[in-house]
Design brief:
- With 504 residues, the chain is of the alpha/beta class.
- It folds into three domains: 78 residues, Barwin-like endoglucanases (Beta Barrel); 236 residues, Nucleoside phosphorylase/phosphoribosyltransferase catalytic domain (Pyrimidine Nucleoside Phosphorylase, Chain A, domain 2); 85 residues, Aldehyde Oxidoreductase, domain 3 (Alpha-Beta Complex), CATH 3.90.1170.
- The chain is built from 17 helices and 18 strands.
- The strands form five sheets. Strands 1-5-2-4-3-6 form a six-stranded mixed β-barrel. Strands 12-15-17-13 form a four-stranded antiparallel sheet, sandwiched between helices. It has a three-stranded parallel sheet with strand order 7-10-11, sandwiched between helices.
- Helix 10 packs across helix 11.
- The N and C termini lie far apart (86 Å).
- 48% of the residues are buried.
- The model has no long low-confidence stretch (mean pLDDT 91).
Amino acid sequence: MYKAKILDFDTKAEFVILNKEVEDPRDSQTNLAQIKFGDKKMIVHVVRSEIVLGTEIGIPPLIADKLNIKKGNKISIVAKSKPNALPIIMKKYEQETWSAEDLRNIVDDIYAGNVSDLELSAFTLAMQYENLSIDETEHLTRAFTLHGEQIKFDEPVYDKHSIGGIPGNKVSLLIVPIIAAAGLLIPKTSSRAITSPSGTADTMEVLCNVDFTAEEIMEIAPNTRGMIVWGGQLNLAPVDSEIIDRVERPLSLDPESVIIASILSKKLSTGVNNLVLDMPTGFETKIEKRQDAKNLSALFVEIGRRVGIQVEAALTYADQPVGHAIGPALEAREAIETLMGNGPRSVLEKSNELAGILLEMSGIAKRGEGAKISNDLVTSGKALEKFYEIIEAQGADIRYKPKDIEIGQYNMSINALEDGYISYISNKQVKNIAATLGCPSDKKSGVILRRKRGEFVKKGDTIMDLYTSRESALDNALKITNVKHPWRLEGMVLERISSSQREV
């Protein structure tokens, strides 16, 4: 046992430091060792140095945070003698099929901290390039659910999930109160933004608390009929996070099987029976081609059926941001405006269509009539009242009006330099500008699109407003915007072709 010393420098490399005089715990073949603190384990490399004493073990901050190690904690370390997962992983490279037992063993080892970064990379690359069958994806989904928190209710549970990739997609803040106002149970667990300007949890956090335990959710949700909480607090099916954080994100990998297993395992862990899947499809999104979206949707529906979740997927328009507001506080404002009947038509229409599918799945609405019933719940004010009830149950002490929500004090309007029709809005550029302004960490920052695709603007008309809490961020965002506008202006005549242009 060694006493933890938290190092004063950080690195992404997974190693620990022992004194040169201490017996080397590394396995001679693998060059790896396993550290253990409480019930948490991790495979690491061992570095020898005199910067730690004989009774100390140097722990980088990244590892300390991951294992919740504090200065002075007792840490054990033993040789990692056999790469248990590697023989199973190699079966896929040899064109063999993984069994349910194979995938359970790998997932168990990942959860236990018995898999090195090398093994995990090989596992992820196999899923990325060797293609998993439907059976294997089902096995992976079930294996993910074997670890982490479980939330169960004594009635059907409904949910909406988006694949993501489009800025301004705040529709969950409308769908949850709509479905709850209809009397159905929808305790939605949501993510924080990684590369987008705002995740659902980031936006909801502007209004109320989103950090709840499984026990609190099971107590509150049946009364309010709906919640919007941060799923990261709950440790739901956590093995996929290990894969994403340690391999997928650093290597820019995104295996289809992991996407499906990650989403559906978390829904299983929260007791979801009925799921509408939002598949934003369009230029500069995660899924640009409609056929690819259809193929992925079919897999979700089939795997969902196999594990006991009724899934309906909706391919949604995503060639430009949803609504006008991008950024946590701005999106919270727009969500409430829409519930009040004053928001953008695109936000209301998308919310009604997706909520309508859930209402039809429940039997409350006949097929094709769900969107109308959803809209009635909005126009009657019932959805807004339900939203206020939900945020109050989650700690809010105010019935927010849009103007009550603070936005960045530094702002600037970006105007058209010429007349023309907006033929294009870049999702990628809008996200980049929003990130430069401070999204999502600065919740008051973001973008408002005053004009969108298809609209005519005159020289001097405002196309975009920028907001931030830091003056320097506004300057940087302005530079980016001036270098490359996130929109394109064109006339009705795109190009002129005449005989004078013909080659002789």
